[in-house]
Amino acid sequence: MGLVLSDPRLPAIKLAWPELAARADKEGWPAARFLAALVEHEIVERGRRRIERHLDEARLPPGKTLATFDFTATPMVSKAQAMALAARDAWLEKGANLLLFGGPGGGKTHLAAAIGLALVENGWRVLFTRTTDLVQKLQAARRDLALESAVAKLDKYHLLILDDLAYASKDQAETSVLFELISARYERRSLLITANQPFADWGRIFPDQAMTLAAVDRLVHHATIFEMNVDSYRRRSAFERVRGPGRPPGRATLKSST
Ligand code: ADP
Ligand code: MG
68 alpha carbon to ligand 1 midpoint, in Å? Predict the structure, then answer.
């Protein structure tokens, strides 16, 4: 018994079996119940460890959760919508995209990370990356003639979060790896993209018009788009701190507090 249950492939059982066995003896469990309890324990622990690994690999910025996101600051995104994206997986199954546009400080990165975190907790695999970092990695891969396999490796992530796309790149080589990625994932694997400029400006940012159009086309074909054009949350909360000792924090808008 002890030998089998110390097998390194069953770490949870290894830890828990002496105590469970003692309890089973004491309470007179039938053998089937004891066995079921052991196996169930291993399965539950295995699921937990898996999610822990996925959380680790996701590289999400810390502390950005749906619970700490103030939805009153972004009237164009309802909490119900965000919760639905985090909980219902239909969009990930068909490789649909989520696009967050808006000026700096509007909460794009926070919301993207929060949705990513919720999805990891629901069993999906996610990678959060600054767009510039990923573009650099993909360019290095291309120099090694390994772009295709680098892009294919990202397939294991059901959702790839590209933060700050608009800052990414202005030259042809940089954008073309990005567009390679977009077309490789099209209708198979989801992207969540945050950007300061809406698509209308992309033609100016990216040098190759035809390539840009094709990429935009693929991105928006199955996409939910949030235009988060709100006051900077940072500026706003700094302003509210200045305004009022003694006032309850966080709810008043700039307009109503003047
Ligand atoms: P963006 O990516 O749009 O520039 P961020 O998500 O980085 O904006 O937000 C800037 C800071 O303000 C972050 O610390 C973020 O957590 C916070 N923040 C922004 N919007 C909200 C919000 N609606 N509720 C809570 N915190 C927010
Ligand atoms: Mg950001």
Answer: 10
